[in-house]
Design goal:
Blueprint: E1 12-23, E2 28-39, E3 43-47, H1 54-62, E4 69-74, E5 77-78, E6 89-93, H2 104-115, H3 120-134, H4 149-161, E7 167-171, H5 179-196, E8 199-204, H6 207-213, E9 216-221, E10 224-229, H7 231-236, H8 241-246, E11 253-261, E12 265-269, E13 274-278, E14 292-297, E15 302-304, E16 311-321, E17 324-331, E18 334-341, E19 351-356, E20 361-364
Parallel strand pairs: 3-8, 3-9, 6-7, 7-8
Antiparallel strand pairs: 1-2, 1-4, 4-5, 9-10, 11-12, 11-14, 12-13, 14-20, 15-19, 16-17, 16-19, 17-18
């Protein structure tokens, strides 16, 4: 059964209804049955692996692609077949396409010169206001060649901001920047979105970027929406195995298991251990006895050298991650990962004991749907 991800929002800036987009005469389905309501003050992230349909969906909203089916409205006006320039949108893309012969001020003002009848002083006032917000007010007379990569990206943002659109569309705008600058730009863009109080639709394949920026995250795979929710909802309550596995680093640990029902709940039997879940933790009607399932547990919930133990494991690698360590272990030929406090597992350790709290596991059926 298909799930509907569009939700009721009082003030909708962009509405996408049942969008389908194919290529190669219908052989390649890039976006399939996409429905979303994007609030006028919402920061929405399209997140997923390469080829999942996130950029195609953004390009349909932008008007750079025309969907085969469905409709798109912006501020209650249908724009499905309108040209990009006729939509009340502003774009920021990965490639920083500034005019090299123009100054920063002229680059930022370009859209206003092309699309509005504002007086020159009003245009310049908008440019100065935006430049002040972006911290580039001292650079307005410079040419792009005199700017760093981060400063050029700010100019690109400024050119979008002066248009005061219904929504900003950003397609992996920071992927060409170095890590430190990328982190700083994320913080600045989130602050700007709050100040502008305008919808932003942002495409990325970087889950850390998505989790740090978004009010709402749209997880996509194979052209379809897998789940929509806040960063906390996506992380703590995945609806299917793809989402559980895609979000988080290292990825979730996966164990094949068989379910057997007991008087008080169910027992999950894996090659490494047995876990018993009480009927207060689950709805036993959602699982079938004797059926194969996939048990998952996030690395941070895999307990190493705790007071209790379900099985022993051999330490393969300990990776320092700042104040935490990622510990990769193996037991009965099965690879597992745990996140522990720095130094909890010595680099020279050969074996550790492993425990799993039954309250920290998810169980998925063979179709990847979550049942526990």
């Amino acid at each position: 059964m298909d799930r509907q991800f569009s939700e009721q929002i009082d003030d909708v800036a962009v509405k996408v209804e049942n969008i389908r987009k194919t290529f190669d005469k219908g052989q390649i389905v890039a976006a399939d049955d996409i429905s979303l309501d994007i609030g006028s003050d919402e920061f929405l992230i399209f997140l997923g692996p390469s080829g999942c349909g996130k950029t195609t969906t953004l390009r349909c909203i932008a008007g750079l692609e025309t969907p085969d089916e469905g409709r798109i409205t912006i501020n209650n006006e249908e724009v499905t077949h309108q040209e990009p320039g006729d939509r009340d949108l502003a774009f920021v893309f990965q490639s920083i396409a500034l005019f090299p012969h123009m100054t920063v001020q002229e680059n930022i003002r370009f859209g206003l010169d092309m699309k509005t009848d504002l007086e020159k002083e009003e245009k310049n006032e908008r440019v100065r206001t935006v430049a002040d917000m972006l911290g580039i007010e001292e650079m307005l007379d410079r040419k792009p060649s005199a700017l760093s990569g981060g400063q050029q990206q700010r100019v690109s943002l400024g050119r979008a901001m002066v248009m005061e659109p219904a929504a900003f569309l950003l397609d992996e705008p920071f992927s060409a920047l170095d890590a430190q600058l990328r982190d700083r730009m994320r913080t600045e863009v989130k602050r700007l979105q709050r100040e502008l109080d305008t919808a932003m639709i942002f495409v990325t394949h970087d889950q850390e970027e998505a989790m740090s920026l978004g009010d709402k995250i749209v997880i996509m795979n194979d052209g379809r929406i897998q789940q929509v929710g806040s960063p906390y909802e996506i992380y703590n309550d995945p609806q299917n195995l793809f989402v559980a596995n895609f979000i988080g680093s290292p990825s979730v640990n996966k164990l094949d298991c068989v379910v057997s029902k007991t008087d008080g709940g169910v027992t999950l039997t894996t090659d490494l251990c047995e876990l018993t879940l009480s009927d207060t933790e689950i709805d036993t009607a959602t699982v079938r006895e004797g059926t194969n399932y996939t048990l998952t547990v996030r690395p941070e919930y895999l307990q190493i050298n705790d007071e209790s133990s379900l099985f022993e494991a051999t330490v393969e690698i300990v990776e320092p991650h700042g104040d935490r360590d990622a510990v990769f272990v193996k037991s009965e030929g099965i690879d597992l990962a745990a996140i522990v406090n720095q130094g909890d597992v010595d680099q020279s350790a050969e074996t550790v004991s492993v425990d799993i709290d039954s309250e920290d596991v998810w169980v998925f059926d063979n179709d990847g749907n979550r049942v526990i």
